[in-house]
């Protein structure tokens, strides 16, 4: 229990269990967001770090906009990278 005394008025501030729970909730919420960012970054690095051709059978697709043959898995990784990057930016 914390007490503060002023000259004219006696002001008693006590850290009640309710205030402690509120502080714990704020910390827990921020910590959960932080852990979510870390896991999203690790997931993103895992996806980006894998080279195309590992595991999954690759299909080549033709993009109609510029007629470039492109690995569909690479395209999916880039879309996912952009999506996760946008999510991480919104959490800040």
TrEMBL record:
Pfam families: Hormone_2. It comes from the Eukaryota. Residues 22-44 form the Glucagon / GIP / secretin / VIP family domain. GO terms for molecular function: growth hormone-releasing hormone activity; growth hormone-releasing hormone receptor binding; neuropeptide hormone activity; peptide hormone receptor binding. Keywords: Secreted. Its main location: secreted. Belongs to the glucagon family. GRF is released by the hypothalamus and acts on the adenohypophyse to stimulate the secretion of growth hormone. This is Somatoliberin. It comes from Aquila chrysaetos chrysaetos. The lineage of its organism: Eukaryota, Metazoa, Chordata, Craniata, Vertebrata.
């Amino acid at each position: 229990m914390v007490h503060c005394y002023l000259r004219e008025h006696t002001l008693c501030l006590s850290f009640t269990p309710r205030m402690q729970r509120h502080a714990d909730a704020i910390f827990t919420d921020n910590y959960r967001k932080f852990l979510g960012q870390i896991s999203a970054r690790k997931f993103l690095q895992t996806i980006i770090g894998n080279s195309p051709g590992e595991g999954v059978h690759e299909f080549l697709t033709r993009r109609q906009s510029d007629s470039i043959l492109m690995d569909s898995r690479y395209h999916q990784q880039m879309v996912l990278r952009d999506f996760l990057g946008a999510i991480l930016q919104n959490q800040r």
